[in-house]
What does this fold into?
Amino acid sequence: MHLDRYGDVDTWRGSRPELCRATLAANQHQLHSAADELRSIAYRFEQQAQELEAVARSQIGVAG
Amino acid sequence: MEVGYEPSRIHELSRRTQEAVDRLGGLTSSDPAAANAIRTLRLTRANLEDHWMPALREIERSDTMLRWRASRLSASGSLPLNVLSGSLPDHLRPGGAGAVAMPTKRRDQLLRRLDFFDRKAKSGDAALREGTAPVGAPTDGELADLGRQLALWVRRNDRFAHELVELSVSNLLVGRLLAEASFPASFAWDVARRMAVPNGPDSHVDHDRYALSLSTALASLTDDSAACLDLLLDQPTAYALASWDALNTAIVSEFAVSGLYGAVDADPDRLADGYSVLRFLTRATNGPLDGGMSAGMALGIAASLPGYLDTLAPAIEQEGATPVVIRAVSPSIELGTYDDLVDLFGAVIRSPEAQPAIGTALAAYTFETFERVAGDATRRPDVSHLADFADLIGDASSAEQAELVITAAIDEARHRHLDGLIGFGTNVALLAGGAGSVARSIAGRAVQAATRWRDDGEPHRLPEGRIPAQAYDLITVAAVSVPASNPSMRHDAGLDDVTATEWAEVTRHVDVIEQLDDPHSRMLAVGDLDHWIDTSVPALAAYLLELRKMPGVSELKERRAAAGAD
It folds into this structure.
């Protein structure tokens, strides 16, 4: 999301544009945080998947 | 705080914002781990839809966007907007409370004078109503002087302008002063909007003075057709103008024609906006305006029809609950069902002022249709569309008097061969000899014709159900008179076998019809023409037969027979 580039002070000025920019900045911060959180969750899932795979391989080795 | 914007960048921002809204709307996930992220996406989308897009649309619809031709800001480099204030036109000069400071003393002085003159005007108006001389009312010179001073500060100071807008609903001189000096269109727009809603018909103000003041505000905007259309797009305002009979009929109709016809004539891309207004009014006439609309709005709609018929008529497919969808604009607009449109035109026709305008528009559209299709009349759907529209008007017109006036206007328009009017930018000849739009010219002539016809005492002589019969006869006359005067279209129409002598006889018949004043005599003369063609000119008879088989036209013939015309 790069709307901030198109909606800067060269495009429009006033109290209402300021409010729009402020809420967009807050939303972008929230979106970045959400993306970071998703990446963190994905990393944990990957870690868990690798651990489970290792356990499964060791179980097969014991059985075999 | 400085206020200003660069139009071309606003357009780009608006486009990018809409793209972002669309893309965010397409992102979704049912995974519980993504719940927080999805919620954030929805909040962001809501912010863009609820804050950004309304603000951007408001700017794009303002008069600054309409008048600004080239961006000077791009040439300014990194200069801030307020440095350019001296070189910018008034409507784009950075406003806000700090634009040009207004001395408090000056503000108080002007407002006191405004209040004083309003009280004097009030007592003067009361005296006039009682039939006595308005002694003590402010003079024209005093009002003009005050208007000029107020306009000067309205241009310089947004806060003062806003204060006057809010004052306009209680100090009725504000609206009237719009006629005394040159105020910015945006200010007149704000005043009209503020006054129309909600202090119109449902309030307890002095309706007469209020109506006069609002009417004056509307009149001051009439020359700015884009501003008129923008105000009509504001639904509460459009409803107020369509429902309040106290407003000046001529002013409201001029205002409506300027917006619905003039604005689209000047910018065809605004046809969709015109239809948006008509869609809203269609819904209103199927709801709170079911009993009719103001005469001014009815006449405005009727007189604007020449600009819409070529896109509206083809959209009328079937009767009843079938939607009427205008596909000539993108995205397409659903006006309502056929029955909804019947109610709209019924509400329009209920106004005597609007009746002649509809008849003239129908006649002009008939001739223009045959001019347009030339030799392909039987192979194109245009004539069917024309018949369908005539049928709709017939359905809408339940009152005998309304039918009679419309049919009189149809005859008058046919007599004057008001063809080539349909579609924007056509028939400059009609504009010659006077200011005003084609639509106003049509309405003016039609009203004159209907008035003469009424004064002749004809109404009592004709039966009901005349519109479809008249439209059927109109199609017959136009179908043969157009190729009679346009040899180039005869080959495509399969009329090569008609001899020069026979074409001359067609022309003679048509001339006789055109010179008859009595509608019944004209109807008989059309029958004579029909009979002669049927018995003497096989090629022309075959051509008319093909035309009359077309959907819609056959229905008009049935209604003609039911009206006792045969």
